[in-house]
Amino acid sequence: MDPAKLLDILGNENRRKIIQLLANRPCYVSEISGRLGVGPKAIISHLNLLEQAGLIEYSVDEQRRKYFNIANNMRLEVSVSPYSYTVTLQDIALDREIIGESYVAEKKEATAIEESSFFFLKLSSRLHELEKRQEEIAQMQKHLQVEYIEMMNLCMDSIEEIAKNPVECELLFELLKSETTLATLCYSLRLHPSIINANLIDLAERGFIEYSIKNNQHYWRLCETGAENK
Amino acid sequence: MDPAKLLDILGNENRRKIIQLLANRPCYVSEISGRLGVGPKAIISHLNLLEQAGLIEYSVDEQRRKYFNIANNMRLEVSVSPYSYTVTLQDIALDREIIGESYVAEKKEATAIEESSFFFLKLSSRLHELEKRQEEIAQMQKHLQVEYIEMMNLCMDSIEEIAKNPVECELLFELLKSETTLATLCYSLRLHPSIINANLIDLAERGFIEYSIKNNQHYWRLCETGAENK
């Protein structure tokens, strides 16, 4: 799924509530309508939208009622800072054949030795271990992001110290984010190539930047420290 | 910020484009309007909304132009699966005094020994190391989520095997997610307390669940495996 599409979907409070309900268990239209206090017509139009996006699907029971459920496993991450805006969406395919294999093997053994009921309790405690590890990783990620932003701040201070003019400032900032071409720099800074080029050459002479040629294009990047130390 | 508020904001394509522009560098209204091909009136109303939410702020230059920039560091995570819907928002406070300290100390040394220009290149290569670590952690997180979903699937299969009726199925599923009270179970399953209670007692007698008392309330939970193994 396109991350923009998912953000559009999540931008509506009632759609978020529907997803939350369905993540708890499959529901039919009048059930959702009752829980949310929203008319069935509006619920149906939200459900259609969610279904078209592939986020939900339905099955029909004996009474011909449509039960809707979440059809997908995905994880969306949006990070906003003064220096960056990134949106990533991971679609997590369910390939139980591969990952579940060891447990299935273990299970066959388990049913032989102990009751299958205790196998369930074993699985549930493993599930909670995984939850703990997920929390730990989320913490690591948070610390890393703080460190990243702090480092970015130091870089910005440092750029202001070494740049001779505002154009150099902007060029160093762009190159700090990633290596790039003259054309891209002209587009993002909205400056004439001659101005950008003159500044790039000056920065290169002072040992800050260098270029490499890929696919017949010059890519400018910051120098590696090791090579530049006198 | 309330995560729902941020999702409302990000649910609009033009607002996402504005955030993307400002994350690249501060801009003024006519600049944003020109880049997006959207009238200044609409841009101003989006900017007001973003400002009220605390996501952006502005400074005024000599020509009295308002320059808008991102005011915040945040990370939003939305995870959707057939078993769960979670939204978390981390506001990352910038406390450069604390984390930047070691680098500032190092910098004073650095300026003495080597030129401050090389200090910048050093910072930038550390920044890229941090980026690599961020990618590694994102990968770990992805693997963990796959494992979690697989484990959840195995748990669901196992629940279907051991449950005597659909109510037990639902109860075990609820308790798999977290420990909970009779009242909460009645609310989420929409069943009469007497039915829920009878099933809880039966499950407890079969060694699947147990309760503890906290704040004068009975909390039901799945048994730990160790204690239950015969």
What is the assigned CATH homologous superfamily of the domain at 3-74 in chain A?
A: Winged helix-like DNA-binding domain superfamily/Winged helix DNA-binding domain
Quaternary organisation? homodimer
The chain pair forming the largest interface, with residue counts per chain, is: A-B, 99 and 98 residues
Strand content of chain A: 15-25%
Secondary structure class of chain A reads: alpha+beta
CATH topology of the domain at 3-74 in chain A: Arc Repressor Mutant, subunit A
Question: What distance separates the N and C termini of chain A?
Answer: 50 Å
Helix content of chain A: 55-70%
- CATH C-level class of the domain at 3-74 in chain A is Mainly Alpha
Q: Which stretches of chain A are low in confidence, meaning pLDDT under 50 for 5 or more residues running?
A: none
Let me know the average pLDDT of chain A. Answer: 86
CATH architecture of the domain at 3-74 in chain A: Orthogonal Bundle
What Rg of chain A is obtained from the alpha carbons, in whole angstroms? 27 Å
What's the count of strands of chain A? 6
Q: Output the strand order for the largest sheet of chain A.
A: 1-2
Q: Biggest sheet of chain A, open or closed, and with what strands and sense? A: 2 strands, antiparallel
Structure description:
Two copies of one chain form a homodimer. By secondary structure, chain A is α+β, with helices and mostly antiparallel strands. Among the domains of chain A are: 3-74, Orthogonal Bundle (Arc Repressor Mutant, subunit A); 164-228, Winged helix-like DNA-binding domain superfamily/Winged helix DNA-binding domain (Arc Repressor Mutant, subunit A). Chain A is built from eleven helices and six strands. Chain A has helices at 3-10, 13-24, 29-36, 40-52, 96-99, 101-113, 116-162, 166-177, 182-189, 193-205, 225-228; strands at 56-60, 66-70, 74-81, 84-91, 209-214, 217-222. In chain A, the strands form three sheets. A two-stranded antiparallel ribbon of chain A has the order 1-2. In chain A, strand 1 (56-60) and strand 2 (66-70) form a beta hairpin. The relative contact order of chain A is 0.06. The model of chain A has no long low-confidence stretch (mean pLDDT 86). At the A-B interface, helix 1, helix 2, strand 3, strand 4 and helix 6 of A face helix 1, helix 2, strand 3, strand 4 and helix 6 of B. Strand 3 of chain A pairs antiparallel with strand 3 (74-81) of chain B.
